[in-house]
Amino acid sequence: MRIEGTSDNESNMSEAAQTDPLVLFMPSGKRGRFPVGTPVLDAARKLGVYVESVCGGRATCGRCQIEVQEGSFAKHKIVSSLAHISEKGPKEERYEKVRGLPEGRRLSCSALILGDLVVDVPQDTVVNAQVVRKAASDRVIERNAAVQLCYVEVDEPDMHKPLGDLDRLKVMLEKDWGWKDLLIAPYLIPQVQQILRKGNWGVTAAIHRDMDSSRPFIIGLWPGLKNEAYGIACDIGSTTIAMHLVSLLSGRIVASSGTSNPQIRFGEDLMSRVSYVMMNPDGREAMTKAVREAVNGLIGKVCEEGGVDRHDVLDMVFVANPIMHHLFLGIDPTELGQAPFALAVSGALQYWANDIDIDVNRGGRVYLLPCIAGHVGADAAGATLSEGPYRQDQMMLLVDVGTNAEIVLGNKARVVAASSPTGPAFEGAEISSGQRAAPGAIERVRIDPETLEPRFRVIGVEQWSNEEGFAEEAAKVGVTGICGSAIIEVVAEMYLSGIISEDGVVDGAMAAKSPRIIPNGRTFSYLLHDGEQRITVTQNDIRAIQLAKAALYAGIKLLMEKQGVDHVDTIRFAGAFGSFIDPKYAMVLGLIPDCDLSEVKAVGNAAGTGALMALLNRGHRREIEQVVGRIEKIETALEGNFQQLFVDAMAMPNKVDAFPNLATVVTLPERKVVSDDGGEGGGRRRRRSRE
Amino acid sequence: MRIEGTSDNESNMSEAAQTDPLVLFMPSGKRGRFPVGTPVLDAARKLGVYVESVCGGRATCGRCQIEVQEGSFAKHKIVSSLAHISEKGPKEERYEKVRGLPEGRRLSCSALILGDLVVDVPQDTVVNAQVVRKAASDRVIERNAAVQLCYVEVDEPDMHKPLGDLDRLKVMLEKDWGWKDLLIAPYLIPQVQQILRKGNWGVTAAIHRDMDSSRPFIIGLWPGLKNEAYGIACDIGSTTIAMHLVSLLSGRIVASSGTSNPQIRFGEDLMSRVSYVMMNPDGREAMTKAVREAVNGLIGKVCEEGGVDRHDVLDMVFVANPIMHHLFLGIDPTELGQAPFALAVSGALQYWANDIDIDVNRGGRVYLLPCIAGHVGADAAGATLSEGPYRQDQMMLLVDVGTNAEIVLGNKARVVAASSPTGPAFEGAEISSGQRAAPGAIERVRIDPETLEPRFRVIGVEQWSNEEGFAEEAAKVGVTGICGSAIIEVVAEMYLSGIISEDGVVDGAMAAKSPRIIPNGRTFSYLLHDGEQRITVTQNDIRAIQLAKAALYAGIKLLMEKQGVDHVDTIRFAGAFGSFIDPKYAMVLGLIPDCDLSEVKAVGNAAGTGALMALLNRGHRREIEQVVGRIEKIETALEGNFQQLFVDAMAMPNKVDAFPNLATVVTLPERKVVSDDGGEGGGRRRRRSRE
């Protein structure tokens, strides 16, 4: 066998090799010459092409399916034909009869190479775009799962060679599959004897090859052929726990679901949960129990949905923010509530699922991504893995907006990270008419700059508020409040239409122009909707949004200063919030720095996608462990100029920063200073010239 | 620094090195030159001389004590003087004041080299001769325990470098002690934070460097300096569980004790326990529970005796015969009760103590030596490690006599092993007047070949039965039966005095000569003692002993044939039985082959000694794992000539084998055939010439 490069220099080849058939695997493009009669699976293995196989070439598991592409591939100088692969033999025919083979599919363990071939390895690993929101494209995660199923036939006991049952099993796993120095999960030791006999000496072992101990482990053992194993990727958020159930053999997402984090009953936000631990002697234990129960419940839910026995779940990857991470592991999070925000543990961790009361297979393993810093958790590490700023040359800004915004900025050369205390305003809390995204919530807002009249969309209603039939439909769900995405839009539109100044003050003078500008004590509000519920945007609401967006922007700016850049090339919004807001409005409001709008993308639960990547490919675990080790962590509170950056960022979009890209798509208002406290913000503009 | 050989060729040394002081460490003899001012501990480390240290050179643990030997050591060309070592500094003086230092002892971490020195490293590791019976000599086990205590001072948390508490602990353990890629016992993860703060960032970590996973593990963590750690070596016998409690830091045996194996209530011998498992659905579980409880109880006992908190036990080594081994681990032993006697597992195993319900430190580890074969267990492996036939050129026979005799024969070149079903006769069972070794039991017997009158000793009585004062003393304890060692002696003496023939038949004709030969149905008995209890040796007793010794001898012969030898150089009797029998009588009876009597030694609980070696030196674990892999196992039942060897061995000492060494110290009777079944044994003698 000779492995060829992609370049076509076949001149160096020996006569013998020249006559061997050439096989090209797609989509990897790996190619090589193999003697006539070589099984396609062997050729794939030798070239390092990933083809699953559980039965080890016995044509019983059906996992090693491939397809031959017929035709003349001029570029590769290959004429591939079905005549160049052997007919189905009796084993493969038996498999087809019993289990069925899709049209065109062959078992690569049984199909022999007879001539030049282009072989397609079907990719069942596309991540479902609806599950993991990807603005860009569906993603193919190269598979290299930590768990592999290996069927072996073990020698029967022999008095002359009194090796134990387990020891003979290990011998065969080394002989057939190459596993050296195998260890075994202790719980299995008393079962080996019976499982071997029940399987009539044919058994399937689940090998975990990514144990923190470096040596491969037998974590599961079944009599006969076991042809399916599952994994779980889970993001434990403060509010929501999200989970994917995945086939470790095909890479297919079997089910995805989410549930509320039951810790909410101990405190809505992270800090109130830390307080609960500090105030209640059993608080930590109760919250650990609650989140583990919720995870177990959610495992039950995804398994039921996918028709999977939870005991077939063998590997799990978790991401979480630092406080959730600690509580999940039974670690007191009190230290995270105060400076210096010391993590009890920051590195990646592994457990037996059973060690932390997670009910899956008794030998199931748990991997947790590393935390980046006290407020930049394993979830941020997951998002970083998913979006990969460190894999590219462009300067990428990755923000995950929640109660704490986690911010990562970088490229191949250098990555910096920080968190910024945005507070819950973006989630609709602290906003007078704020509410969670649910039917009845206003989700989109436009304001006519001439008339100052609004039009809006409500969740659960097809029409905009100015369209025919809206009133009828809206009556069914009600118009009950403003959700996070609409808060951004309404404040941005208020700014664009001149209702508020760049400093965020509602201009009382506009009351003369529109009855929607209404006095509210010493300040003014904007009346967005006057129905059963009167929905206004108050001066306080605007201040809350300003504080939140200024915190986020100042954090971003701090990282940009660390990187020595005055703009970013691309922006990724992770998290649910990012999926619903319009990047343009986020920029008008100055949540994010100026950027080509086509380079601003929402990437959904990127943390969960990162967990999924680490689940399906253990190489990604090493990758993120190394990357996190390299990320420079910035503690915003310790940076001398954070306060100034924050104050500048209170203005819309910003007191000092220009937004040239934004200006090409939106006409930003003339600067207009309307102060509610007599202050005059323009003075700070001079700061820029000093820098 | 220059490490010198033991030869004195200093001619090659450079000028600089020549002027450096020469330091010689005893008893290892390792030597080297070090610059003036080098701490003695550093010199030891560089030479690979084992000196314990927990505090890492802070002069607080006191573990690194050494003594300077004063005088002129002509052989080594060293004049060693107390003037060649620095005076005690303030740290060492503080230690001496607080904790005390024995006269002449110095802390090697603080004492600096000023001139040539001969340094004695005190060996506290001598295995107590009374605990581990060693006919030969006390043994020094070179120390290399799996667990090491390491004190470190960890950096306080820093917002700028947000590494977790655990991660900073690892950094310091690598920096100060060189531990790379450390893992941690999961149970500790939630505790790290608090322990670090409680110790004001100074903590002692217990590092286990012999995990089966290959990577070192933090298994324990204490605030401040933790200066003691213990280990347990345990032999789980069918009848008795024996245990040593050892300081892992000094190697000192703190306490030794034993307890009955409570499984006795399920069956006296191994096979009856296997039957119990087969007959009772919960039998395996009940026996596992019983033995684990007994082990836990015994741990409590040795810890109480040694004044040690059981939670300070961090490492344990177990040996056991295969059935005890399986039951202890919760493995069904049924397969061991029938051919092919399949072990569920034969290799060495490791566990968290907690995994198998052993109550020591939560991070305590358990190591089990490998089993050699279905009837040659980890106990035989322990005895093999202790006596080391594979370490020497002589052909060594190692026998552990119990209900099953475990036999190992070999030398450097090759080791073979087998078990032989001797039955319980040697332990006094199946013998009419047999009893366990206890006060009142006859333990020594001599018979006058002229008068056939016996004299004997009774356990608990100083005098021999023919000495003055015996009757008085014996009245206090009674004369209640014959223990194992005396059974050997009385039968051997009966043979030497002509009462029985070489075929073991009591010669009725002798009744004319002595009233002690008394008829008993169709056979005759020998009246050993006629007191409150009438103690006789019946024809059946002799048959039982013959069957037992023939089984043992035939097994030995089989191994000798495999090795192609007709004699052995040295014999080791392991086990309690071996400690009490007189090798001469064992040879007269033909339990063991002919050998120079000075080369026959009882070695006590060699299995336990092997466990102790594996506890104190992890190198011995690798050693025995490799050796067991090389040992050739012989299944006696499968060997065609076992039956013939067995029949030959029924005779005393043997029908066909000569005992030239024995003949030099004992006058063996003329061959005399007295058959009770008309057979004539002499015919078989011809077999020898055929071989």
TrEMBL record, chains A, B:
CDD domains: fer2. PROSITE patterns: 2FE2S_FER_2 (PS51085). Residues 1-20 are annotated as: Disordered. It comes from the Bacteria. Residues 1-17 have a biased composition (Polar residues). Coiled coil: none annotated. This is DUF4445 domain-containing protein.
